[in-house]
């Protein structure tokens, strides 16, 4: 069911400091910050030849990233995102196998303008999984 690795997301306290690590130390091109209030994050992307890295800073105190940083003060890997061909079909198949879809269960539009869903980390070996319709 799952396809390409779309991105790996890292939770950070300060997007400008984190962006500089990727820009100056790793020599990567970093996109301009984009605020996504519906997701409670401000995001930048680093596009690599085979995937993307998403740096996430909390936007608002009820952001999922704020809660993650309370438990993980240094930040760190927050989720991995896989592409699926049909997100509704993928959701229905996963739910029939007992996986928990987070939130309302309806896809939201993510950072790339495509429908996304999140799956509970306890059902996927302790890693939060995002699905994005390719
Ligand atoms: C930029 C937009 C978009 C894109 O297009 O790419 C994004 O990526 S937005 C990214 C931010 N959005 C989300 O994270 C939405 C989905 N997340 C959630 O619904 C919640 O964060 C959560 C995963 C359900 C956790 O919330 P909550 O239950 O309130 O927090 P707890 O701290 O109580 O966690 C319960 C349990 O799960 C463990 N946990 C939490 N987050 C993660 C994580 N990122 N990776 C692995 N495990 C995680 C947490 O440690 C708790 O475990 P126990 O302490 O053992 O109970
Ligand atoms: Co993501």
Account of the protein in words:
There is one protein chain. The chain has one domain: 2,3-Dihydroxybiphenyl 1,2-Dioxygenase, domain 1 (Roll). β2 (34-36) and β3 (41-47) form a beta hairpin. The model has no long low-confidence stretch (mean pLDDT 97). The chain has helices spanning 15-25, 64-71, 87-96; strands at 5-11, 34-36, 41-47, 52-58, 76-84, 108-109, 115-119, 128-133. Strands 2-3-4-1-5-8-7-6 form an eight-stranded mixed β-sheet. The protein is built from three helices and eight strands; from the N terminus they run βαβββαβαβββ. The longest helix is centred in the N-terminal third of the chain and has 11 residues, at 15-25. 22% of the residues lie in helices and 34% in strands. It has 134 residues and is α+β, with helices and mostly antiparallel strands. It is globular and about 45 Å long. The structure holds ligand LP2KCY5N and cobalt (II) ion (CO). Ligand LP2KCY5N binds at residues 9, 36, 39, 41, 43, 54, 56, 64-65, 67-68, 71, 78-79, 81, 102, 110-111, 116, 118, 121, 126-128, 130. It comes from Microvirga puerhi. Pfam families: Glyoxalase_4. GO terms for molecular function: methylmalonyl-CoA epimerase activity. Residues 4-134 form the VOC domain. Its EC number is 5.1.99.1.
Comma- or semicolon-separated keywords:
eight-stranded mixed sheet, 134 residues, alpha+beta, globular, 3 helices
The assigned structural class equals alpha+beta
> Per CATH, what is the topology?
2,3-Dihydroxybiphenyl 1,2-Dioxygenase, domain 1
Tell me the CATH architecture: Roll
Q: How many domains in all?
A: 1
Which stretches are low in confidence, meaning pLDDT under 50 for 5 or more residues running? Answer: none
CATH class: Alpha Beta
Strand content: 25-35%
Kindly state the mean pLDDT as a whole number? 97
Globular, elongated, flat, extended or rod-shaped: what is the shape? Answer: globular
Percent in helix? 10-25%
Bound small molecules, which ones?
Answer: ligand LP2KCY5N, cobalt (II) ion
Q: How many beta strands in the DSSP annotation? A: 8
Q: What's the name of the CATH homologous superfamily?
A: 2,3-Dihydroxybiphenyl 1,2-Dioxygenase, domain 1
Rg of Cα set: 15 Å
InterPro entries: Glyas_Bleomycin-R_OHBP_Dase (IPR029068), MeMalonyl-CoA_epimerase (IPR017515), MMCE/EMCE_epimerase (IPR051785), VOC_core (IPR037523)
EC number: 5.1.99.1
Domain VOC: 4-134
GO molecular function: methylmalonyl-CoA epimerase activity
């Amino acid at each position: 069911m799952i396809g390409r690795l779309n991105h790996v997301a890292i939770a950070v306290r300060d997007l400008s400091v984190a962006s500089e690590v990727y820009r100056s130390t790793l020599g990567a091109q970093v996109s301009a910050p984009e605020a996504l209030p519906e997701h409670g994050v401000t995001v930048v992307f680093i596009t690599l030849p085979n995937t993307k890295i998403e740096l996430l800073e909390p936007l608002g105190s009820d952001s999922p990233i704020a809660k993650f940083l309370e438990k993980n003060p240094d930040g760190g890997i927050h989720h991995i995102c896989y592409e699926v061909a049909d997100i509704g079909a993928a959701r229905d198949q996963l739910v029939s196998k007992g996986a928990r879809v987070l939130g309302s269960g309806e896809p939201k539009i993510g950072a790339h303008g495509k429908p996304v869903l999140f799956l509970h980390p306890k059902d996927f070996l302790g890693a939060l999984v995002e699905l994005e319709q390719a």
